[in-house]
Amino acid sequence: MPDRRDPFEEIEELFEQLNSGFAEMSAEFDAGGAGDIHVDVADAGDEIVVTADVPGFDSEEIDVSVSDRQLRIAAEHSTETETEDEETQYYRRERSRRSISRTLSLPTDVDEHAAAASYENGVLTVELPKADGDDGIDIEVN
User: Fold this and answer.
1) Given 9, 59, 106, 111, which is the most exposed site by the fewest CB atoms within 10 A?
2) What are the per-10-residue average pLDDT scores of the chain (142 residues)?
3) Is 2.60.40.790 the CATH number for 37-129?
4) pTM summary value
5) Half-sphere exposure of 39 (CA within 13 A, CB side)
6) How far apart, in whole angstroms, are the C-alpha atoms of residue 36 and residue 73?
C-alpha cells in the first residue's frame, strides 16, 4: 500500500510558511522600509536633539508634533504636471504623491514652549529641552 500524505501535516506546513513570510515582512518594516524616516536621537545634556533625514521635501511640507512623549514627523509632497500640444491635440497630466512618517518615543519629558525645529539640506533637526521636574507635559509643535 503506497504512503499517503497526511493532509493536516500539509496544512500545518503551509501555516508555518505563511508565518515565516509574515515575520520576514515585519522585520523589513521594522528595519526601515520604504516611506520611513531615519532618525538619530541624542541626549545633549539639557535637551533631546532629534535629527531626521527628510530629503526631497520643502519645509512647508513637513509636520512635526509632540504629545505624551511621542514625537511625530510626517512629510507629504505632491506634484502635478500638465502638457498640452495644440498640433496633435494631445493632453497629458502626470501626478505623483509621496508621503513618509515616523513616530518615536522620547526618553524623557520635554518643555513644549521651548521646542524648536529647523530644516536644511534635507535634514530636520528638532530640539526639545528637557522639562523641569518629574511631571509630564503634553507638547504639540506645529
Assistant:
1) 9
2) 72 78 60 67 93 91 89 87 64 75 90 87 94 57 46
3) yes
4) 0.61
5) 22
6) 10
